[in-house]
Amino acid sequence: MKDQLEITRTNRRLLNKIMDNYSLEDLNKVPEGFKNNLIWNIAHVVVTQQLLVYKLSGLPMMIDEEMVAKYRKGTKTEGFADQEEVEKVKELMFSTLDQTEKDIDAAIFKEYKEYPTSTGFVLKSAEDAMGFNNFHEGIHLGYVLALKKSL
After folding, report:
1. Which of 3, 24, 93, 126 has its CA 20 to 30 A from that of 151?
2. Which CATH architecture has domain 2-150?
3. Residue 11 C-alpha from the chain's centroid
């Protein structure tokens, strides 16, 4: 699972670099033809990793329910993410992965509630979830790159 985690970290580094190179206004802008913005896509991958890997394993997530409600699957950009929220997302992008690595080492991922993804792939373990999460984060990196061109 550590190889999967390193792929996630690599993707998050790319997203972090994008966050560092865009203004707060640009991070919040929803270009014509899109329903979400840069910050939504980046926060969404943090939320999704927590839901897929932790919640479905029956373990506590490292994010609050307010963040889940705002950025989970099926939501869209509503409102403006202020600088404090952007900084929180930046911190969570890596702190959640650092804790996931510790939890892998501690072998806490024992149970998993089977979950059929929207692509039709059924997740049956935390390891499946980490692999699928990388696929999911790659999709959202693609959206972020498309959004960048539209700003």
Report:
1. 93
2. Up-down Bundle (1.20)
3. 10
